[in-house]
Write a structure and sequence with these properties.
The chain is mainly alpha-helical and 137 residues long. The protein is built from six helices and no strands.
Length: 137
């Protein structure tokens, strides 16, 4: 009887979902990370406020004169950004929801403005693809 109860309890425990996507580092470096350096018309670049010296730092500070991050900094950015996403669930990921217009499903808080006016925005789509497990080609 004890064995049956133990097996029942074990089977009742939530199991890790084998379908949960893995966040791809190479896709991040090639497609996601450049978004933080680009300037969208009417907005400040993400890196200005979200690097270590910014108000809400989760990106590494660029070296003086650099136009991108080093490999070590990219690894640190990748690790840091994973805390802002829920793999497989872009619409539950702060990285996508904070800068998305509330009328398009975003949340009310983002001091940097609404970088994405809709979920069809190419940058939003790139970030969503990463969260959904897209890999580098």
């Amino acid at each position: 009887m004890t064995l049956v109860l133990a097996l029942t309890a074990l089977l009742a425990q939530p199991q890790a979902d084998a379908a949960t996507p893995t966040l791809d580092y190479d896709y991040f470096v090639e497609n996601v990370q450049p978004i933080f350096l680009e300037r969208k018309a009417g907005f400040t670049r993400c890196v200005v406020c979200h690097a270590e010296g910014g108000r809400v730092g989760f990106l590494e500070e660029l070296e003086r004169g650099a136009d991108t991050w080093t490999e070590e900094q990219s690894r640190a950015n990748f690790e840091s950004l994973q805390r802002l996403v829920v793999p497989g669930l872009p619409l539950e990921s702060r990285l996508l929801m904070h800068p998305l217009e509330p009328d398009a499903g975003g949340d009310e808080f983002h001091n940097g403005g609404r970088q994405f006016s809709s979920q069809e925005d190419p940058w939003f789509q790139t970030l969503a693809a990463w969260v959904l497990g897209e890999t580098a080609q």
